[in-house]
Amino acid sequence: MYPPRQSPGVLAVRIVTGVVGGAAALLWLLLAFAVLSSRFDTNPAGDPHGYVLLFGTLMSVPVGAVCAATLPFAFPRQRWPLGFAVVVPAFVVGTVLLFAAFLTAH
Question: Which residue ranges traverse the bilayer (predicted)?
Answer without folding.
Answer: 12-36, 51-75, 82-103
